[in-house]
Every structure is written in C-alpha cells, then in structure tokens.
Amino acid sequence: MESALDQRFGLNRRVTLPGPLKLDGGVLLSPLDIGYETYGTLAADGGNAILVCHALTGDQHVAGDHPVTGKPGWWTRMIGPGKPIDPARHFVICANVLGSCMGSSGPATINPATDKPWGMSFPVITIRDMVRAQAMLLDHLGVARLQAVVGGSMGGMQVLSWAATYPERVEAAVVLASTARHSAQNIAFHEVGRQAIMADPAWRGGEYYGATPPAAGLAVARMAAHITYLSEAGLTEKFGRRLQAREAKSFGFDADFQVESYLRHQGLTFSDRFDANAYLYITRALDYFDLAEEHGGVLANAFRDSKARFCIVSFDTDWLYPTRDSRAIVHALNAAGARASFVELSSPFGHDAFLLESPELNRVIDGFLRAGQ
Predict the structure, then answer these.
(1) Cis before residue 31, ω within 30 degrees of 0?
(2) Which residue among 153, 161, 231, 314 is the active-site one?
(3) N or C, fewer C-beta in 10 Å, the chain?
(4) Does the annotation mark 153 as catalytic?
(5) Exactly one of 318, 325, 347, 358 is catalytic; which is it?
(6) Residue pair 149/51 in contact by the 8 Å Cβ criterion
(7) Ramachandran region of residue 66, left (φ > 0), alpha (ψ -120 to 50) or beta?
(8) How does pLDDT run along the chain (373 residues), one tens digit per residue?
(9) Is 265 a catalytic residue?
(10) Per the annotation, does 222 bind a ligand?
C-alpha cells in the first residue's frame, strides 16, 4: 500500500512484463523490464494521467532524488506542489526508455537466453519502440488514456510518436525543443561520440560488463554532445576565455581554461551513471527517427488521426533543434487540421533551456494544461 509520503514524493519501481514487444526491426522482445517512477494518484475516472518522456541522458527520476547521484530529479522546476505538473492534480508517470540503463531492458540487462548481459547483441531499437514499451507499462498501470504527454528533446520525439502511434490515447501533447527528424549535422555529432566510445580499448566490442567500462570514451562522447546543448552566448557569459586559477601556468594538456574543466567534469560525472552501450543504442535510435518517413514521407500524415491539442515550444538560441524544426512540425499539424499552438521563447541557455529555470516556459505549460481541464 502506498503511503501519503510515497504519493507526494514518488515511487521508484521496476516491473517485468511478459511481452512480447515487437520491435520495428521485427524482433520479439520478451520479457521486458521497465524502470519507472510515479507521482500522485490516478483519478477514479483515469483522466488525470500525464506521461513525462525523458531526453537522451535522462531517466525516470524526474522529480525524485536520483539514486546514483543523490541530486534532485531533472525536472523539479516543472513537477511538484504548485507547479505546472502537480501530483496533487495529476498522476505523473516517467519511464526509463527502452535501451537505457536505469532499470529498463537494454544492453546492460540480462539476456534470458544466455544469462549474461546483452551487450551489442541487444536488438536495434527506435523511438517508436520506446513508445510501444511505454504503452505496455501504461496498460500494466491501468492507464487507458493520457491527459497529456510531455517531453523535451528526445522526449519531444517520443511525444510526437505517441500522438502518431496511439492517437486515441492522447488528449494533449507538449513538445519542447525537439524535431521530427535528425539533420546530417545531428547525426555527425552523434557519430563522433559513438566512435569515441568504440575507440576506447576498454570497450572490447561491447563486452566490458564485469570489467573496466570504457569511461574515457563515454566521457568524450558526453563532452562533444554537451557542447550542442549549450549556446555560444551562454558559454561566453559563463566562462569566456577565463583561465583556471593557478600559481603558475605552463603550456600543456591540463585544463587551462574554465570551459575545459567544466566539460571534463560533465564527462566524468556522466560516465559514473550511464552505460556506454546504452549510449550507442539510444543515439542510433535518435538518428533513425524520421516521423515523416514512417508515414509515407509526409509529416502531416502522422497526425491525421489525432484529436489531441498540441503545444510546440522552441528556444531562440537552440542550434541543436532550431526553431525552424519546430515550425516544420507546426506546419504539418496545421496541414493535418490538428489544434496546435506554438511559441518561441528567448533564452541564453541554448537547447538545455527547457531543463533550466524559465518562468515563461512554466506559464506556457501551466496555461496549456489547465485549458484542457
């Protein structure tokens, strides 16, 4: 029985579902593990459920303390008492995506056929596969329909895929700093990260479980990706060309500049909580994502059956998924006759703006969700 404390601060759970889950690649995955957190209580009529979809390096610990880092959840600015997504009003679910490493089936979990970690024998996955796994979880939880699906970046891709794959289950969709498909530049940055991991001698073709993981390669991959999450203005304001404080400075390969030290810290802390093979699989799923291609090459076709309300938000300094990507989604929604609202917000923080303090974003999401009640 859940206590009032559980309902307020969330429950970290893991469930094994019998499956099978049929993947886009044709593989039947069974059984299926899903790590997830819930906050609040499902209403008697089931009408208050909100699914929050996380980004590439996120996980299900959206508003509860992270069990590895001990830090608060990654979206406590948006979820909590008196906030736009409030467990007092909403039943909030956040699931670790398929292929990740915080409780859901992925390369680091045990292959029941071999009793060893899957490693690189884990089947290739797509964003739509992640969404199908979430749908199986919601079936398990007794959630037939969602008041809203909300997500940023890769989470926004899942939101779009939810609206296209399960239009009858989604009443509202909030897509933040996202895109309907990756550009060549997006794919190129991911390939640099993947090659960094696979060039690490500790990777061993993905068979490193029980041994030293490829932490150095994963750290470099994280550093390269993290640059794309920021903006030039934000980096300049935060670091400029400031040097590290030292008694003496000599030329070399130490972190002389503050921005170098920051990126190295990001890489090292990331490798402490994430699995390198999972990074390979999830970045590939991102690169494969092309919602228009899934629907005859016409993006509007993805939304023909949807009756949901859509809220699309972009940020003016996001060069990973720039505003033109959001406008393309809005144009497709308009062509499909869907109800869509769009706003570009100003922020110095680049792509990561949806994760950071933004009163404007809170007002947009709060107003949008309340408008449907």
Answers:
(1) yes
(2) 153
(3) N
(4) yes
(5) 318
(6) yes
(7) beta
(8) 232 223 333 456 899 999 899 999 999 999 999 999 999 999 999 999 999 999 999 999 999 888 888 899 999 999 999 999 999 999 999 999 999 999 999 999 999 999 999 999 999 999 999 999 999 999 999 999 999 999 999 999 999 999 999 999 999 999 999 999 999 999 999 999 999 999 999 999 999 999 999 999 999 999 999 999 999 988 898 888 988 876 444 444 576 889 898 899 999 999 999 999 999 999 999 999 999 999 999 999 999 999 999 999 999 999 999 999 999 999 999 999 999 999 999 999 999 999 998 999 999 999 999 997 6
(9) no
(10) yes
Rounded CA separation 283/15 (Å): 25
Token code pair at residue 83? 């906030």
Calpha distance 145→280 (Å, rounded): 32
Q: CA separation (Å) from 151 to 59, 177, 272?
A: 12, 9, 25
To the question of whether residue 352 is assigned a binding role by annotation, the answer is yes
> Domains in the chain, please, with CATH?
4-181+290-371 (3.40.50.1820), 186-283 (1.10.1740.110)
Residue 157, Cβ neighbours under 10 Å: how many?
29
Where residue 25 falls (left for φ over 0; alpha for ψ -120 to 50; beta otherwise) is alpha
